[in-house]
Design a protein that fits this description.
alpha/beta
Length: 333
């Protein structure tokens, strides 16, 4: 028998964005195939009738559903979709022990478990399910789309390929066998230190205070995660971060290997001025260069937009929700 963990869920509104008067909201839970119970916010258009097209949303990597994934989910619900924004395994209000671990396999499974939940929900048309992955979850969303044939449409927003950045560093600046060896060696040593200490050492979230000479992308993260704009008490990036060894397996398990076999629709969108834009451009090229399934694939580069602008709009309406509505309306019909 599949059993759910007994999660403690906050019932009052504790998001980083205001609640819309045009949606109905409730907390829901579901279980992935590893037996981990996931917590989600479900958003539904007010007074909606019949079975609706549905979208599961997650990300960024180290964020929680009370931040931008919830904003995406609520906004898409205002536009006629039933949506859920969920916390991945080991983070936020979701279950799993120990805390603050990540896995390319388990986190892809989290998305598939969300599709399970939506497929069996009486308010959802199971033939009309899409997913949105933000930042590090953009890569996970593409991996899910390559694996889960029930997903009819996928959006990756301001995407990171977490396997690439863990194995090669930012901008591939650590792409050598020797540098990977040293990182593996350090994490293996940390495993023993953690076991001797009886607890896992945290790697630290977004740097605070912000150094005067911080690179722009670090300042960009600080402006979101460490200020009233996006701070949340359960967000890893706002606080202590992942465990030092939390992302160890990402180094050896690339997740975008079979994206050229995705038959369903994919929209890859990124800000033109984002430090991370190379992830989306190169992932899209790899997905379409030798693929038979390119007619329903699109790369959208948004002018004058940086990485976190696609978290919450950046105060300038940067998230192209009209485009997202049109995309999902077309491919979830």
């Amino acid at each position: 028998m599949i059993k759910k963990e007994n999660l403690k869920l906050v019932q009052e509104w504790d998001k980083t964005f205001p609640k819309s008067d045009n949606i109905e909201h409730e907390k829901v839970t579901f279980v992935n195939r590893y037996g981990i119970t996931l917590a989600a916010d479900m958003y539904r258009p007010k007074n909606a009738e019949g079975k609706l097209p549905a979208i599961a949303v997650c990300g960024p990597f180290g964020a929680v559903k009370e931040q931008c994934s919830g904003l995406y989910a609520q906004t898409m619900a205002e536009r006629g979709f039933l949506t859920i924004a969920f916390d991945p395994s080991f983070t936020g209000e979701s279950g799993g022990n120990v805390r603050y671990m990540a896995s390319p396999d388990i986190n892809t499974e989290d998305f598939m478990a969300a599709v399970d939940f939506l497929s069996l929900n009486e308010k959802v048309d199971p033939e009309k399910i899409g997913i949105i992955g933000i930042c590090g979850w953009g890569g996970m969303a593409l991996n899910t789309a390559a694996l889960d044939t029930r997903v009819k449409a996928t959006v990756s927003s301001t995407m990171y390929d977490m396997t690439r950045v863990n194995a090669k560093g930012y901008f591939d600046s650590e792409d050598s066998e020797e540098q990977r060896f040293e990182k593996r060696k350090a994490m293996c040593a940390q495993r023993l230190e953690d076991l001797k200490a009886g607890e896992y050492k945290l790697g630290g979230g977004v740097v605070d205070p912000l150094p005067e000479d911080a690179p722009f992308f670090v300042a960009d993260y600080y402006d979101y995660y460490k200020t009233n704009r996006g701070y949340h008490e359960r967000s890893l990036n706002s606080n202590g971060g992942w465990n030092v060894i939390g992302c160890q397996s990402f180094m050896n398990q690339p997740i975008l290997k079979y994206t050229d076999e995705i038959r369903s629709a994919v929209l890859v969108m990124h800000g033109e001025k984002a430090h991370s834009c190379y992830f989306s451009k190169e992932a899209f090229e790899e997905m379409t260069a030798d693929s038979k399934y390119t007619d329903n694939k699109e790369l959208l580069i948004i002018p004058d937009v940086v990485h976190t602008d696609l978290y919450d709009g950046g105060g300038k309406g940067a998230i192209p929700f009209d485009k997202l509505e049109d995309f999902f309306t077309e491919y979830l019909k």
